[in-house]
Amino acid sequence: MVWWLCALVLAALIAPARAAEGANVFVLRIAGAIGPATAEYVGRSLDHAARERAQLVVLEIDTPGGLDTSMRSIIKDIVASPVPVAAYVAPQGARAASAGTYILYAAHIAAMAPATNLGAATPIAIGIPTPGREPEPPGRPASAASAADTGHDTSSAKRINDAAAYIRSLAQLRGRNAEWGEQAVREAVSLSATDALKLKVIDIVAQDVTDLLRKAHGRKIAVQGVERTLETAGAATLAIAPDWRSELLAVIANPSVALILMMIGIYGLLFEFSNPGYRTNSRV
After folding, report:
1. 104 and 205 in contact (C-beta within 8 Å)?
2. Longest Cα pair distance anywhere in the chain, in angstroms?
3. Residue 249 maps to a domain
4. What is the C-alpha to C-alpha distance for residues 78 and 15, in angstroms, rounded to an integer?
5. How far apart are alpha carbons 250 and 40 in whole angstroms?
6. Catalytic residue among 158, 169, 198, 200
7. Which phi and psi angles does 87 have, rounded to 5°?
8. Total number of domains in the chain
9. CATH number of domain containing 129
10. pLDDT tens digits, one per residue of 177-196
11. Exposure pattern of 110-134 as b/e (b: 16+ CB <10 Å)?
12. Is the pLDDT of residue 280 over 70?
């Protein structure tokens, strides 16, 4: 009986390793706002895929955007990865807005499911508004206010110009529509999957991961200057989920949770300052 239990335990330990070895395609998932936890998860998973010599990594995306630093960290990992990455906006009804659009442009293969969209990639500052700005007079047309903001807010212009140059460089790297990418940054425009395919913003429209792998089969892509031909039709897939640490960091970094924690900290400091040395009475 003991040897039988030992055999079961050994089989359970070996099975994941064999599954990874037999998987030609790793599937990652980005859902929700992009933050440090997301960047760590993607970077670690790409390293794992490289060690296992995977043929392709599929990065499923459904995000409203996120932090610029985390987005750039993910893009650096994609560009430096020896394993090609296919960014796939899925499932149907998903979006790759803001930071998701940059990641889509950076991937070796850009794909979308039907009824998805991308775009609205204008960078927005987070924090206290710049002092010294006079409020706009009531009744002023929105177009005039926008023109004034563009002309006088130097920091905003710097962010937009930097983001526009960044997405254009990614478009040139992957041979995608640089003009529309810059338009998504400067004018916050968006595209549906069908229109994105027509404008050569993406490469494939696929119903699911299986359909994506079938349509990507035979494509020639350049990975770190070396041309490769994908053989993904019918390839085995392995889903890589975030570990407990990444999930915990994602919860803490969620804007709603972070705001609650910040308010608790602020009220705790106010209570301590207004009641220095406060302690409960005890009875002996």
Report:
1. no
2. 83
3. yes
4. 28
5. 10
6. 158
7. -85, 125
8. 2
9. 3.90.226.10
10. 999 999 999 999 999 999 99
11. bbbbeebbbbbbbbeeeeeeeeeee
12. no
**Catalytic residue from among 70, 73, 98, 246:** 98
Q: Percentage of residues in the chain with pLDDT exceeding 70? A: 73
User: At 95, is the secondary structure helix, strand, or coil?
Assistant: strand
At 20, which amino acid appears?
A
Token digits of residue 250 = 């994602």
Range of the domain at 249: 245-278
Check whether residue 76 and residue 150 sit in a common domain.
yes
Pairing relation of β-strands 109-112 and 85-89?
A: parallel
**Is residue 131 in a domain?**
yes
Q: State yes or no: is 98 an active-site residue.
A: yes
Residues 257 and 213 in one domain: no
Q: How many Å separate Cα 179 from the centre of its chain?
A: 22
What is the C-alpha separation between 186 and 172, in angstroms, rounded?
A: 18
pTM across the whole model: 0.76
75-110 tens-digit pLDDT: 999 999 999 999 999 999 999 999 999 999 999 999
198 catalytic? Reply is no
The answer to whether the beta carbons of residues 84 and 93 sit under 8 Å apart is no
Q: Are residues 126 and 249 in the same domain?
A: no
Co-location of 156 and 64 in the same domain: yes
